[in-house]
Amino acid sequence: xxxxxxxxxxxxxxxxxxxxxxxxxxxxxxxxxxxxxxxxxxxxxxxxxxxxxxxxxxxxxxxxxxxxxxxxxxxxxxxxxxxxxxxxxxxxxxxxxxxxxxxxxxxxxxxxxxxxxxxxxxxxxxxxxxxxxxxxxxxxxxxxxxxxxxxxxxxxxxxxxxxxxxxxxxxxxxxxxxxxxxxxxxxxxxxxxxxxxxxxxxxxxxxxxxxxxxxxxxxxxxxxxxxxxxxxxxxxxxxxxxxxxxxxxxxxxxxxxxxxxxxxxxxxxxxxxxxxxxxxxxxxxxxxxxxxxxxxxxxxxxxxxxxxxxxxxxxxxxxxxxxxxxxxxxxxxxxxxxxxxxxxxxxxxxxxxxxxxxxxxxxxxxxxxxxxxxxxxxx
Length: 379
Known about the structure:
Layout lengths: L1 E4 L4 H14 L3 E4 L12 H10 L7 H25 L4 E5 L4 H12 L4 E6 L6 E4 L13 H9 L39 E6 L6 H6 L6 H11 L7 E6 L9 H10 L4 E3 L5 H7 L3 E3 L3 H5 L7 E3 L12 E2 L3 H9 L8 H15 L4 E2 L5 E2 L2 H14 L1
Parallel strand pairs: 1-2, 1-3, 3-4, 6-7, 7-8, 9-10, 10-11
Antiparallel strand pairs: 4-5, 12-13
């Protein structure tokens, strides 16, 4: 039995139903996370960790106390539910922050299997992972794993992975001051590294921001490091088109600090800037991964499942960032390793989402069975 926490958006609930249908073992839609007065020694720590990375932070001491108590009660409910139904597989969307995090951790602490679901960074694919999403994913971080996998069978190493990028377009802008315009503004731009900013309160940042810690921290680090760029180079920064938190003040200060080595371009299409760049710098944005389709070097400042040496370039601190920017012509990657990694994502990791005759999403039963087996073996 699959017990999934309602997505409350048609697309999410449709994907949950597709999962249940492909599994063929029944499903239960949990409309909300209940509340329980049950006492568990892990509850307070679980709630505090979830609160620390919650997307919506409460205001004031009282607000934080109330939110913490809510998370404790939600954790206790989830823990009790899965203790009573140990055969149920807990499934929720993202599951990295706030209430969804205590839901999935309550299931884990009760000994139940779990699956995290999220849209993949490629069209027509989803994430189904027993460990988590993004940097918490179960994907190995060792280059040797992907080399060995690619060598095991013919057809595993090639260019078919590029089909993952078919239909990939830049995210539609939700802000009037951030757009996806044509590339006319890039004419004569010179050599630059592109920096697509992320949503500041997204779980990618709050949980996996690494040494920069935040979008503001990244901007400050880039302002310092940009001064190491050779003459004729610059960093080209674009704000996230969906972010409700403007970075204008921080970017203006960074541009002044960098003494002309930073350009703000909120108007040009994101992938046009990727294509025209000599490389991409990111904390852990999916744009960094999608830059692989343009064969660009990628510097990763935070935690990311694709921050594998040779696939991308992990940057461990300000000195390493300054050193990388001092010699941008030397940035690169290993094409064969990157192809093996991307082929694994294509052929193994990201399930395809097909469209049934009724227009509803469909998942392959064999793929879902494999994912459920992984979840059950991991609990």
